Amino acid sequence: MTSPAYKRVLLKLSGEALMGEDAYGINRATIERMVADVSEVAKLGIEVAIVIGGGNIFRGVAPGAQGMDRATADYMGMLATVMNSLALADAMRQAGMTARVMSAIGIEQVVEPYVRPKALQYLEEGKIVVFAAGTGNPFFTTDTAAALRGAEIGAEVVLKATKVDGVYSSDPKKDASATRYATISFDEAIAKHLQVMDATAFALCRDQKLPIRVFSITKPGAFKRVVLGEDEGTLVHV
């Protein structure tokens, strides 16, 4: 069997990915399939940390949040990521895996606080670590949280799981001639105005020489193929 290309990875999941075909919320079949994908990768001996967004939950309250103070809305979004993290960890537990949720904001009765040495210990013990509540600060996205946590834990790559199977020359839904890049440098992505991650997250990854691989979480077996180093998605590198 092919040896894994990485020892430790940071998987960035969007909250919307948990919706499946639903309008908002968590689709049980979808989360169970994602957990099965993570389980396959963990069985290869790869240490997996996860950052998850909260868009699937916040979408349901977004109309009522219009005109709300930005910081308040962002804190609501952080709490949504905690809910998603708990759901993900519970699904992992039911699948026979051990997961630990660590929050950037203090909710000790619900989840333990993020402490870097403890997170590293969990990873070394083979546990899945789910980082909740983004960076713990408003005005920063969960993409930035993924870049930050990835750098902090010494991940070898940030794996951005989306509904698109890579980075394209243009929007493949609008342009039939759009082509997928197998690899592209950070500088090329900037020059071509390709939206890989938000600007803060992208700059942090570039500065820390932390590669990003974009792939489709809806594609069966894609996560495993990525960590085995196969031609899956797009690798953004220095």
Explain this structure.
It is a single chain. By secondary structure, the protein is α/β, with parallel strands linked by helices. It has one domain (8-237): 3-Layer(aba) Sandwich (Carbamate kinase). The protein is built from eight helices and nine strands. It has a nine-stranded mixed beta sheet with strand order 4-3-5-2-1-6-8-9-7, sandwiched between helices. The model has no long low-confidence stretch (mean pLDDT 93).
List the helices and strands and how they pair.
Layout: E1 8-13, H1 28-42, E2 47-52, H2 55-65, H3 70-94, E3 99-103, E4 112-113, H4 116-124, E5 128-132, H5 142-152, E6 157-162, E7 183-185, H6 186-191, H7 199-207, E8 212-216, H8 222-227, E9 234-237
Helix pairs in contact: 1-3, 2-3, 5-7
Task: Name the features.
single chain; 238 residues; alpha/beta; Carbamate kinase; nine-stranded mixed β-sheet; 8 helices; 9 strands; globular
Tell me the structural class. alpha/beta
Number of helices: 8
State the order of secondary-structure elements, H for helix, E for strand.
EHEHHEEHEHEEHHEHE
**Rg, Å, rounded:** 17 Å
Quick summary:
The chain is α/β, with parallel strands linked by helices and 238 residues long. It contains 8 helices and 9 strands.
